[in-house]
Specification:
By secondary structure, this protein is an alpha/beta fold. It has seven helices and ten strands. Bound molecules: fructose -6-phosphate.
Length: 239
């Protein structure tokens, strides 16, 4: 793993964002895997700003996102689809026909097969962006007793509900999500992980220094050949 410790979230956003801008300019029809949550927002800001300044175009890019809540309309303000539209897509020239998203209201098995086929048809994901949960989850693959493969419907853990329910002020937070599996994530050609803040320090330590175990799903990244991890000093404190 290539571990880069930078001074602030903003610096991380600029460094990761630059990496995307350079990659897209070199590969205008690339396939990108995106994540939601707080960690990637400065990176999305950087990409959106670069697009506005004419330094990059997302017109030819295809995207897949890691996960989506179940039992929530796609246009709800807290859906991950809405998050991506607000934080990235609507701020760029991306062609929404090239944006694919897991449907949290579809039959999970059929949706999993559809998503796997769609990713394969595009030639696989070139760069997958990840955050990490306080419990070591990646996407919504929570700690468990086995590594998952393709997308599946997951019951969210209390740790994740506690972390994310602050965003739900009108309805209770959904208890289920559909998420890309660990296998789908590991098949990405390159992975970029962003973790900031003291609440991630333990999970980051287990991911990098701990044994590879489904008890810390992110630890599987030790077995991927091209992972870049961006950390701030607080998230790196236990390394
Ligand atoms: C979101 C996702 C999650 C988050 C993780 C960290 O699509 O897959 O695994 O990356 O929960 O969330 P933040 O960045 O909000 O701390």
């Amino acid at each position: 793993m290539d571990i880069r410790i930078l001074g602030s979230e903003k610096e991380i956003g600029a460094a990761a964002g630059r990496l995307y801008v350079d990659f897209i300019n070199a590969n205008p029809t690339c396939v990108l895997g995106f994540a939601t949550g707080a960690s990637p927002v400065p990176t999305y800001d950087y990409i959106a700003q670069s697009c506005r300044q004419g330094k990059v175009s997302l017109k030819g890019v295809s995207t897949f996102n890691l996960d989506e809540y179940c039992d929530l309309p796609r246009d709800h303000k807290n859906s991950y689809f809405t998050f991506m539209c607000e934080n990235l897509f609507s701020r760029t020239d991306i062609d929404m026909a090239n944006v694919d998203f897991l449907d949290g209201n579809a039959d999970p098995d059929e949706e999993s097969a559809r998503y796997a086929a769609a990713i394969k048809a595009k030639g696989g994901i070139d760069i997958q962006l990840l955050g990490i949960g306080r419990n070591g989850h990646i996407a919504f693959n929570e700690p468990g007793d086995k590594f998952t493969d393709e997308a599946w419907r997951v019951a969210l853990t209390q740790s994740t509900i506690d972390a994310n329910s602050i965003y739900f002020d009108d309805i209770p937070m959904p208890r289920y999500a559909i998420t890309m599996g660990i296998g789908s994530i590991m098949r990405s050609k390159k992975i970029i992980m962003i973790a900031t803040g003291a609440s991630k320090a333990e999970a980051v330590k287990n991911m990098i220094k701990g044994p590879v175990t489904p008890a810390c799903p992110a630890s599987i990244l030790q077995q991927h050949s091209d992972v870049t991890v961006f950390l701030d000093p607080a998230a790196a404190a236990l390394l």
